[in-house]
Amino acid sequence: MKKAYLKFGIGITALLFVTDVIAKRINKEKDLNVATLVITETGKYVSLDPLDGDSSQNLPVARMVYSTPVEITADNTLGSRLLKSFEYDQSAKTIRWVVKDNLKYSDGSVISADDIAFSVSRMAFTRPKFPLIKLIEGIDTWLTQQTPLKSYPSGISVSGNKIEIKLKEDYPHPMFRFCLEIFSVIPRKCVNPATNKIECEKTPTSGLYQIASENGDSVIFEKSKEPNTIDTEKSPALIKFIYADAKTAFEDSVNKNNTTIVLSSESKFSPTELNSIQGKFEISYTPAAWFTVLQINPEVPPFNSPGCRLLFADRFRQNFEELYKVPAEASIFTKLVPGYKTIEELKSSLDSNQKICLEQLNGAKVPWGFEGSTPNIFVETILKTAKDLGLTIDGPKKFSNKKEEVEAFLSNQTTFAYARTGFWAMDPTGDIQMLFTPNLHKGLKHFWNDLKLQSQLQKIVSEGKVNDQIVDSVNNYLFADSKLSVYSHIRRFYASKNKDLVLKRPQGITSPSPWHLFGDME
Asked: For residue 487, which of 430, 419, 392, 391 has the smallest C-alpha distance?
């Protein structure tokens, strides 16, 4: 009997302890006025490997917990938590970095120059055709080694706290590439050089924040105990991510305080819905540097024919305009960057035979499914287009996340997919090369071995200069090929009931780091 009482007492004590911990966490959130970012564009992260930082669902979390060699600051300049200095010597085609002293990971261990250089060589090993990376001297020879990751290409050298990266030819604005989350710094010792897999049970993080707790639809970050900071950087002690449906995000149950910002985009709403949101929230739009994409699986008949893909994409754009009273676009380059073309200009370059596919589409049956963050606008337009062309949809099936949808797309279990991305105005040609880099975005695998496209992309920049003729050729080819069809140019936007949060948002960055949005809430 005493043992039973003892067990009962231990159970009560444990329960009280857990309850106390939860209560303290809740009170801590209340006391510190937690900054909340509601994300509607994607689902929760699925990987903390920096190499997966190209995925839209992993990217925001990677930016929170990791530092990259160079970063874009809140005032739209380049800075670094990790580097004392960084420069590009154009005449020598050499990037030079000097690493700060006393840098620490979240566990208190030292961040070394070797770790920072390894973030570059790991990308080179995984994606040797990546823009800028492919220009590092010695890449091709280095990749022939049995275990390349045990060393560096001849173009990368580390001496004390100094790193040099020597290029084979000039590249415009090279530092900006190293701002990307895929260059996030983790301990070199955590990566198996033979497999390139992370083997640390819990990888120490190099960023401003650590994950404190999470559940099914939210993640709470707290400032790292070893915050490697840029001198001018301000940020709140706690930031909470909530993943919500675009419509749900604007309900009072989610947006109930003045420390909440919703991140969304025009692609999620009709003009009428946007007007309704604008009547209840303060909204700040980013430039129209983003675009939405209809992907058509080229391995699912009858869409193994470019003509059939083009016909479907053309009707899709018409229906998009008709349903939502928004002008359709088709150029992969937006009006903010060189290379933009109107639909009429793109159509003028087509062979008329590519438009003959009505008989093949009428009566055909194809599978389709999508995950939860796919805009209703996209879904409704697909259904109307299929009906117009006499195409039967098997489905639609609901996928639990984007990763599952991509895997289904690549295994021909679904025919259409929604995507959204954007180009940086300073280097759009570098961005388009990056977009189609082999072994980067898995959902674009059908382009990795597209010899015509890859050949054009290799020629788009040479010795730091852009070939405008190749830019036009790439735009024309993607339009006619129609595996990837742009249908609108969009703005992302930030919405809040707190006018100050929206007005103080950094204006020069289309995708500021989450803490940039809450800089004055320290």
From this structure: 419
CA atoms within 13 A on the CB side of 294: 33
At 266, the amino acid letter reads E
Digit-coded pLDDT (tens) for 14-51: 433 433 443 344 444 444 568 999 999 888 999 999 99
Q: Output the 3-class SS for 280-343.
A: CCEEEECCCCEEEEEEECCCCCCCCCHHHHHHHHHHHHHHHHHHHCCCCCCCCCCCCCCCCCCH
Q: Check: pTM over 0.70? Answer yes or no.
A: yes
Measured between alpha carbons, how far is 176 from 76 in angstroms, rounded to an integer? 12
Q: What is the 8-class DSSP label of residue 81?
A: S
Helices (H), 411-467: 428-435, 451-459
Sign of CA dihedral 175, 181, 186, 190: negative
- From CA 262, how far away is CA 246, in angstroms rounded? 9
| Pair 119, 206: CB distance under 8 Å | no
What length does the chain have?
Answer: 522
Contact (Cβ atoms closer than 8 angstroms) between residue 400 and residue 57? no
Q: What is the pLDDT of residues 205-247, one digit of tens each?
A: 999 999 999 998 999 999 998 778 887 778 899 999 999 988 8
Other Cβ atoms less than 10 A from the Cβ of 231: the count is 6
